[in-house]
Amino acid sequence: MNQNKEINELDLFRYMNHELSGEEQTEVEEWINASEENRKIAEDYYQLSFAVTSLQFIKRSAPQKALEKVDKRLKKEQYRKIYLFVQRVAVILLFPLLVLSGYLLLQPEGKAPVFYLEARMTPGMIGSTILPDGTKVWLNSSSYLKYPNIFSGDTREVTLDGEAYFEVVANAEKPFIVHTDNSSVKVLGTEFNMDAYSSNGFIATTLVEGSIEFKYQNEDHLSQTMRIKPNEQVIYDKKTSRAQIGETYIAKDIAWKNGQIILKDTPLSDILWILSKRFNVEFTVKKPAFYKYSFTGVFTNQQVERVLEHFKRSSGIRYKMDYQLDKDGEIIKSRIELY
Question: What is the pTM of this model?
Answer without folding.
Answer: 0.70
